[in-house]
User: Fold this.
Amino acid sequence: MLAAERYDRIVELVNIKGSMRVSELSERCSVTEETIRRDLDRLEQAGRLRRSHGGAVSVKEDQPEIPYRIRETTHALEKKRIADAALAFIAAGDRILLDASTTAGYMAANMPDIPLTVLTNSIQVATELSSRDNIEVISTGGQLAARSLSFVGPLAERSLETYHVDKLFLSCKGVHVESGVISESSELQARLKQKMVGIADQVILLADASKFGIWAFARVTGLEAVHTIITDQPLSEEQKSLCSAYHLEVHTV
Assistant:
């Protein structure tokens, strides 16, 4: 593969996924990680992508969301472990907010039938909880994002402004600890999640290891807004130190 062809391939891969790590690109392009790092520097200088810690993110404004059914099977075991751990943070009488992530979907599937109020923009979550007699489910409504089975847009955002919750269980596209940024692949999702953070007393971030070191297109919030992170692999010593500076509790499952 010629260098120019490799550049095009790298940009194509990053645009499809929204972000990719150096190790992934190295494997897909069959070159060393050092070659990929040099390629990414050149592509960033050309304005074709943006470097992130450990990889690159797309500069395309509207990233296509990965369909829910595909996301559901990606890192599924890790997400299920995180979801099970997150359930331990819920108590009877809580008012909670679940986003439209697949991890939230796994939470809903195993949610105990105890007195709860669950606010969500997820069709999957609402469907999973529909058979629970003791759980009151409230949907935001809004514009249907078919690929993520979620409601987004101005109506969903205004709906969130009506409510206040004890706990938000939040997922994301990227957690860039070094910059203190949580991000999403699309502006619509990021804006809605900003509203979610704003109405919650406690923000619990659910992020498997693949999300760390990624800075996706649209900023959601800073790590200072998060109280707890639940993840599946231990953080590096540097990341632990940075999380401590934000007074974050990190739970590894």
Notes: The chain has ten helices and 15 strands.
